[in-house]
Every structure is written in C-alpha cells, then in structure tokens.
Design brief:
3 strands, mainly beta
C-alpha cells in the first residue's frame, strides 16, 4: 500500500510588476492525499517493481 500527501495548488497574490507573487508573501498551498499500490519482486540482487497511484502510474 502507498500512502502520501501531494501538493494540489499553490496560489498567491499577483504582483503589480508582473511577477507571479509578491516577494514578502508566501503562497497559500493546498494538499491532497495520494493513495496507491506498490508491487515488488526481488531475487538475489535484482529488484523489479510497479507502482500505481491516483496521480501517476
């Protein structure tokens, strides 16, 4: 089983100079859960695995 947290969005106030954010303002960040599965097989010194989650495969 794979359980994690992933950054969903980051939003900040636009700068009047055209930059993405003001220099003294941290962006507001929202997080979401990331669930999935991991399957690995190993033999001697070789390990092969597959991972699938709600964000990527």
């Amino acid at each position: 089983m794979l359980v994690g947290i992933r950054k969903k969005t980051a939003d900040c106030a636009d700068s009047c100079l055209g930059y993405q954010c003001y220099a003294d303002t941290d962006p507001e960040t929202d997080y979401t859960g990331n669930l999935g599965a991991v399957l690995t097989m190993s033999y001697d010194r070789l390990m092969i695995g597959v991972r699938a989650s709600s964000e990527s495969t």
